[in-house]
Specification:
Blueprint: E1 14-28, E2 34-42, E3 45-52, H1 56-59, E4 67-77, E5 80-90, H2 109-121, H3 126-137, H4 139-147, H5 161-176, H6 185-194, H7 199-202, E6 203-204, E7 210-211, H8 213-217, H9 220-239, H10 245-257, H11 273-297
Parallel strand pairs: 3-5
Antiparallel strand pairs: 1-2, 1-4, 2-3, 4-5, 6-7
Helix pairs in contact: 2-3, 2-5, 3-6, 3-9, 5-6, 5-11, 6-10, 6-11, 9-10, 10-11
């Protein structure tokens, strides 16, 4: 029997199937009655699920990342699809293909790593090139880029999403920086490579997409600063010379300011042209990835998608095939 993936679900479907549980929450409605809310995921996408009148025993019966068996019905709600479940229970992994429950990346990791290497080798600054090569020669870092998502839900939320995000940003920097004389392309390329490197330790895709303990407690900016400090020390040994104080400051400033503003977690706002460029490139790639995946994964149909929670807008899909004049 063919498994009914998330991508196959349509309004009115009666459902009895296994999915991966993500972001489970026990909430109370306006009358104080508890209900379970979670996301159901597989390699084809994700759909929200609710179970009314669900108590602590149901909530405690499984963890985020577990496979759960769902019985219920698919219905439309505010322009998108959701599952209203009558039963949610933990399912055994035996007999299941783990790859069915991991979002499929859109990239070829080997090709992306090769391209990252080309861009790093094209850096004219000897210290910055040495730093980039040190990172790409580190087996643990490369394995981390390959396996780590760039986020657990917002953008590039799939194993290897971090690698895709970083290399796409490097490609953008390579094209954009020459348009602005005085902006140091080499610095921005290294900023793209290093800005989210702390996510290798912050996020995990071992069991669903989740935060590690040190990710929750410390965060990827502080972890990234620690990791880049270590890579600079390795690069100095490789070069046989020290990084200048100013170059080190500029690299660290880009990493620590790339969120762009204090309210979004940056301890400093971008204060160099390169840091400003890095923030805008990061914003561009992450937002376009969100938009494209939202368009692709929306199954409700119609010319407009439901509101995207992060982008805070609906997206226009346009006239559907067969409807054009």
């Amino acid at each position: 029997m063919v498994r009914k993936s998330v991508g196959m679900l349509r309004e009115g479907d009666q459902l009895e199937e296994v999915y991966q549980a993500r972001d489970k929450q026990l909430r109370a409605n306006r009358h104080g009655n508890l209900y379970l809310q979670l996301d159901l995921a597989d390699r084809t996408g994700m759909i929200n699920c609710r179970m009314w009148n669900a108590g602590q025993s149901v909530f405690a019966g499984f963890d985020d990342g577990d496979l759960v068996k769902i019985r219920g019905r698919v219905q439309a709600h505010q322009g998108s699809l959701q599952v209203i479940a009558t039963c949610v229970e933990k399912a055994a992994m035996e007999g299941m293909d783990p790859s069915e429950f991991q979002s499929a990346p859109d990239h070829d990791a080997d090709r992306l790593l090769h391209r990252a290497g080309e861009l790093v080798r094209g850096i004219s600054s000897f210290p910055l090139r040495a730093l980039g090569e040190t990172i790409l020669l580190d087996q643990a870092a490369v394995a981390g880029f390959r396996a780590t998502p760039a986020g657990v839900s917002a953008h590039h939320a799939y194993p290897g999403g971090l690698l895709e995000h970083v290399v796409c940003m490097m490609e953008l920097a390579d094209r954009i920086c020459p348009l602005y004389p005085g902006v140091d392309r080499d610095l921005v390329l290294v900023g793209c490579l290093t800005h989210d490197i702390g996510k290798i330790r912050e996020l995990s895709s071992v069991k669903g997409l989740s935060y590690t303990d040190e990710g929750q407690l410390i965060g990827h900016l502080a972890l990234g600063q620690e990791m880049v400090t270590g890579f600079i020390a390795q690069a100095e040994k490789l070069m046989g010379q020290a990084f200048s104080v100013e170059l080190r400051l500029r690299v660290m400033h880009m990493l620590l300011s790339h969120h762009g503003s204090l309210e979004f977690g940056s301890p400093r706002v971008p204060m160099t042209p390169e840091a400003i460029a890095l923030h805008q490139i990061d914003l561009m790639d992450s937002r376009i990835n969100m938009a494209m995946r939202h368009l692709r994964e929306d199954r409700a149909g119609g010319s407009w998608t439901p509101v995207h929670a992060t982008l805070q807008r609906r997206l226009y899909r346009g006239t559907q095939p067969g409807q054009a004049d």
